[in-house]
Write a structure and sequence with these properties.
By secondary structure, the protein is α+β, with helices and mostly antiparallel strands. Helix content is 38%, strand content 22%.
């Protein structure tokens, strides 16, 4: 497999994973269970009937510069 072939396969990954996650989400909702997802600054539980319930507020994402090393304590 050439580098070009690998790059071509890797370029397809975002669309394929998006479809896989959407199908899994739909399958869970169709089975009568709820799913968790983020919406803005919140984690939200979505129920099969479309109802949403805020579970918790989350911290905003941290912008990082590529190549910077951070030490987490």
């Amino acid at each position: 497999m050439s580098d070009h072939d690998i790059q071509q396969l890797e370029s397809q990954f975002p669309a394929l994973s998006d479809r896989a996650f959407a199908a899994a989400r739909q399958s869970v909702l169709a089975s009568g269970q709820s799913v968790l997802q983020t919406e803005g600054a919140f984690v939200v539980r979505v129920f099969p009937d479309g109802r949403k319930e805020v579970v918790k507020q989350i911290e905003p994402s941290t912008a990082v510069k590529i190549g910077t090393i951070y030490t987490i304590k």
